[in-house]
Write a structure and sequence with these properties.
By secondary structure, this protein is α/β, with parallel strands linked by helices. It has a single domain, classed as 3-Layer(aba) Sandwich (Rossmann fold), CATH 3.40.50. Helix content is 47%, strand content 22%. It has a four-stranded parallel beta sheet, sandwiched between helices.
Length: 134
């Protein structure tokens, strides 16, 4: 497994409520923290980080160019592993996340998360790549 190419997917949302936005860290700081954590994980797993996809989104985005870029890299076989902080960084909708994980698995890619909230646990367990590496 060592030396596999990985893509980091970083995502932050800007809440529409100004009070909520003030309570949360700045989106740029949130992305920097995600990148730090994911790079540490990649280093421990001996992955080579080939691409980093970043997005700062409104609460209800219409377009997601960073996600489109990630999916293009997947189909072009530029990476072997996708690393994300949490499933909702990719998709908040469990059905869309499920489709993404099936797509990645069909392409022979793994998607690994640092944290999996309970809402997404069954999807990651059922449709994601097994946590233990083969």
């Amino acid at each position: 497994m060592s030396g596999e190419t990985a893509a980091l997917f970083l995502s932050a949302r800007v809440p529409s409520d100004p009070k909520e936005a003030k309570r949360r860290p700045a989106p740029e700081d949130e992305l920097a923290e995600q990148e730090r954590r994911l790079r540490n994980y990649a280093q421990q797993a001996r992955y080579t980080v080939a691409r980093v996809f970043r997005e700062i989104l409104p609460e209800f985005p219409e377009e997601r160019p960073a996600l489109k870029g990630l999916r293009t890299a997947m189909w072009l076989r530029e990476i072997a592993v996708v690393l994300a902080d949490s499933p909702e960084r990719l998709y908040r909708d469990p059905e869309r996340l499920k489709s993404f994980l099936i797509e990645a698995r069909t392409l022979g890619l793994r998607v690994e998360f640092l944290d999996v909230p309970p809402l997404y646990a069954w999807i990651v367990k059922e449709y994601g790549w097994p946590r233990e590496r083969r």
